[in-house]
Amino acid sequence: MTGPPAVHPDEVEVLIVGAGLSGIGMAVRLSEAMPDLRYAVVEARAASGGTWDLFRYPGVRSDSDMFTLSFPFRPWTGQDSIARGEDILEYLRETARERGVADRIVYRTRVVGAAWSTPDQRWTVDLEVTDDDGAVTRRQVRTAYLHFASGYYSYAGGYDARFAGVEDFAGQVVHPQFWPPDLDYAGQRVVVIGSGATAVTIVPTMTDRAAHVVMLQRTPSYLFTVPGSDPVANLARKVLPEALAHKVIRGKNIATQSGLYRLSRRAPGLTRRLILSDAGKRLPAEVVAEHFQPPYGVWDQRLCAVPDGDFFTAVADGSASVVTGHIDRFVPEGVRLTDGRVVEADLIVTATGLQLQILGGAGLSVDGEPVDLARTYAYRGLMLSGVPNASLTVGYINAPWTLRADLVARYVTRLLQHLRDHRLGIAVPVAPEGMAAGPILDIASGYVQRTVASFPKVGDRSPWTLPQSYHRELADFRRADLRADMVFLPVGSRVGSLPSSAPAPAAFESVAPIPSSPDDSADRSHCCRRVFAVIDEFP
Q1: What angle do CA 129, 131, 137 make, to 5 degrees?
Q2: How far apart are CA 26 and CA 412, in angstroms?
Q3: Given its phi and psi angles, is residue 110 left (phi above 0), alpha (psi -120 to 50 degrees) or beta?
Q4: Whole-angstrom Cα distance, residue 422 to residue 329?
Q5: Quick one: which of 106, 96, 12, 116 has its CA closest to 49?
Q6: Cα–Cα distance measured from residue 150 to residue 24, given in angstroms and rounded to the nearest whole number
Q7: In tens digits, what is the pLDDT along the chain, a chain of 539 residues?
Q8: At what angle do helices 231-239 and 242-266 cross, to 10 degrees?
Q9: Which of 129, 201, 151 minimizes the C-alpha distance to 49?
Q10: DSSP 361
Q11: How far apart are CA 20 and CA 53, in angstroms?
């Protein structure tokens, strides 16, 4: 779904930044609850779909099942549980068309900054608009509420590992984020640098035409096989009405994901053996010992799903292989490792990760003072301390992004309804003094650790935490007190400044673990209760 820059409104009630999964979901929830709301969606690119329009590398697909990645209000009807990128993109665009969101999207419009005025009770948002010829003009739009659905990484560039000697390599080097549409790798020796979800996807896909594909990794990841097409889901859809089947399948999958994560926290040794046993059944013991033994715990970094074991199959049949070692430099014939080995290549794919970026790179100011995001606390993981009438979407590290994106959308909708019903013009979270600070993305992956210190922090008490539990947050958001640590001011109130909010410390402190509720138990009976809790999701 593409289009030329539409007519930009001068003022709206709500401005949504980003027309990907989060932005479309937010727009649908707002439209359902407040049909007369004046809102617009601005998208920096020339097409909607976000991640699923950006990535075009071979085999791009979901890294989680589509019954939890899809929207709860629009069931996934495809046969594949792990879906192709183009199918996900079409699903998102169909959703936008069917729900009337497509007409609200303004393309090629980048938010570069936003300034809040307390006397005006408005954001003035600075935009860069690109025309068909590439010319950029500046304009502004005013909005009462601003929501960033722009994700957490930069679309402008992936992480550059700055390998020495790249200029010496005789072949071609590509990054998955900028895959050339006309790249022909038939008969070539391909080296994919990386061991994350992108590398695990690209390697088996490229074996169709490449002479051989090597995954060159510094550190192994946890890989586990999932069915490309879920037989339980397909059976449920045959015997149950579509909407009920979707809820049952969704509940089953969420409970399974949650159970695995909880098990990894409570019985890390058992979980490690469980995950590694999958590779052990599919590959020789010596291969598993050398290349599939991560030196960290399960879920210290994201797990990599392997649909129908395709990666293991490619390694087992010899069309792909794995090399573990540290890179010294690129050389004309390929990549030289620190132990002296040379991995020969005609094409090198640098699947070295993302470059994190909050708010799409936009800067914020409140009453003339720039906002230092690293010194803010994240209120319920979606608003910023001391920053009024603004929110952002942040997902889970251990579950599909959509789960939390939809919780955020419903909470923001509820907040906006509260503002309208009570003629309130300002809602600003105020952080209490004395909170310890922790990372909003608490995971050891390199691409996160490189940048997360510049992101907002989470605190050590509710409502300033971000529990990595959909079931817990489903209940918490449902009964959340909108007034907790929140200051409201009436429409038109004559207030020159906002109440002060405690700044987050510049460095992370020790944050006490969030206590588990009885519902977080990993035993079978509690798993069943979690399934039905999800089936009974609030609309």
Answers
A1: 40
A2: 8
A3: beta
A4: 63
A5: 96
A6: 11
A7: 555 445 578 999 999 999 999 999 999 999 999 999 999 999 999 999 999 999 999 999 998 899 999 999 999 988 889 999 999 999 999 999 999 999 999 999 999 999 999 999 999 999 999 998 999 999 999 999 999 999 888 888 888 888 999 999 999 999 999 999 999 999 999 999 999 999 999 999 999 999 999 999 999 999 999 988 888 888 998 899 988 888 899 899 888 888 888 888 899 999 999 999 999 999 999 999 999 999 988 888 788 999 999 999 999 999 999 999 999 999 999 999 999 999 999 999 999 988 888 999 999 999 999 999 999 999 999 999 999 999 999 999 888 999 999 999 999 999 999 999 999 999 999 999 999 999 988 776 666 677 778 899 999 999 999 998 898 999 999 999 999 999 999 999 988 889 999 999 877 664 444 433 333 333 333 433 344 344 445 44
A8: 150
A9: 151
A10: G
A11: 9
Structure tokens at 165: 């000697």
In whole angstroms, give the CA distance from residue 142 to residue 145: 9
Q: Are 227 and 81 in contact (CB under 8 A)?
A: yes
What are the residues whose beta carbons fall under 8 Å from the beta carbon of 523, sequence distance 6 or more? none
* 74-80 LR contacts (CB < 8 Å, sep 24+): 74/98, 75/242, 75/243, 75/245, 75/246, 76/246, 77/242, 79/229, 79/234, 80/228, 80/229
Q: Which helix (H) or strand (E) holds 22?
A: helix 21-33
| Extended strands (E) in 309-448 | 320-324, 327-331, 334-337, 342-344, 347-350, 363-366, 369-370, 378-379, 383-384, 390-392, 424-429, 438-439
Tokens of 256: 């399974």
Give the list of residues 6+ apart from residue 398 with CB closer than 8 angstroms, or none: 257, 261, 299, 302, 468
Classify burial at 297, counting beta carbons within 10 Å of its beta carbon; exposed 0-12, middle 13-18, buried 19 or more.
middle
Q: Which residues of 203-227 are buried (b: 16+ CB within 10 A; e: fewer)?
A: bbbbbeebebbbbbbeebbbbbbbb
Cite the beta strand spans of 289-435 per DSSP E: 304-307, 320-324, 327-331, 334-337, 342-344, 347-350, 363-366, 369-370, 378-379, 383-384, 390-392, 424-429
Q: Are 176 and 158 in contact (CB under 8 A)?
A: yes
Tell me the one-letter amino acid at 156.
Answer: A
**What amino acid is encoded at 211 in this protein?**
A
Q: What is the β-pairing status of strands 369-370 and 363-366?
A: antiparallel
Which domains, and CATH codes, for the chain?
Answer: 11-155+356-497 (3.50.50.60), 166-350 (3.50.50.60)
Q: How far apart are CA 367 and CA 123, in angstroms?
A: 10
Q: Which amino acid is at 171?
A: G
CA proximity to 464, closest of 482, 487, 437? 437
At 186 the three-state DSSP class reads: coil
